[in-house]
Amino acid sequence: MATWKDSAHRLGYLIDTHFDRLRYGLKRRLGYDQPLQVVPYDGYGNQETLFLTGRVLEDHGDIDTTDQETLWSNLVASYRRFGSDEVPGLQIRATFQDRSVETVTDREGYFHVALPVMRSLDPDLSWQSITLSVPPQAMLRRQPPEPVTGRVLTPAPHCDFGIISDIDDTILITGATSLLRMARLTFLRSPSSRLPFNGVAAFYQALQTGGPYRRPLFYISSSPWNLYDFLVDFMGLNGIPAGPLLLRDFGVQPERTIGSSHQAHKLAQIERVMKTYPKMPFILIGDSGQHDPEAYAQVVATRPQQVLAIYIRDVTQNPQRDAEIALLAAQAQLHKIALLLVENTLQAAEHAARHGYIDSATLPSIRADHARSAEPLDLIEHLVGEDD
């Protein structure tokens, strides 16, 4: 039975949809159309199908992410990320190996394509290139945007395992257990001033390169797609290996109720990844603060053959939470799967080295990365406060 909250949610969806259509239709009729940009998000695929998501937005120019950050410049960048103008109902063409498929952007400007692989892929090539364009007939009175290239990760068919990692408070210091601190760090800092947890870059590099084939990494987060460029820049600046980022659409959706959870999003994305690579096991990495242990335990229950090990960073420092995770670890052990609650990255790396998931020769570099000192608080952090 629908609750009043769900009814209000559906009403909000109808109002939001009507407003978006009115706004976009009025802009087109008045000729007040900005140039458009097609924004591809890194996808993934196998030897049969490539999957790619993207978004079409009005082009207001690149977001400035220079090192000369100020409180004002970070606020402006955040406003532009979350105040983007999506373009619904636009035809998009995706081309790979001389084969094209077409789709249409949804009401939030997103599009999703699945391209068949017509010829065998080069096993030494980790990323495939897809051309994305807007057919000229899809535009009314203006030139279509220039074609862009999207990337799709295609692991070698015989890769020994992959890695699925959370982002917030797993690789990126976020303070997700404190909404105020998380908001401050999200809106008032730039990618260059955000810090990863010590040792993460070296550990993930060791996981990626520790086998006969380059291992794929997938990053699943409940953060909105609006933060995609921010997260990509952050990872690149800090030497964290690239991989598809599987984020959330925070727009009002009719099928999403008020109770829709971060956990449900992560489970759905993990299921999609594992179905794409049904013979590949995975190491799952998360933290104790946002139900990652519960989500990963459900994966163990449904797909135990595809879980190699689970590492959970302890960010809560709560005895009751530790006991809850210990119970989940005992349940995972019934399937002979280790679920470890670790204080830091180094503990996970040492376990991985003992079990052959990484080359033990990489431990010195991981220890060195783990031992680095966090940078002191800068002026912006002093202005907004250290913590609650």
From TrEMBL:
Pfam families: APP1_cat. Residues 161-314 form the Phosphatidate phosphatase APP1 catalytic domain. InterPro entries: APP1_cat (IPR019236), Mg2+_PAP (IPR052935). It comes from the Bacteria. GO terms for molecular function: phosphatidate phosphatase activity. This is Phosphatidate phosphatase APP1 catalytic domain-containing protein. It comes from Candidatus Competibacter denitrificans Run_A_D11.
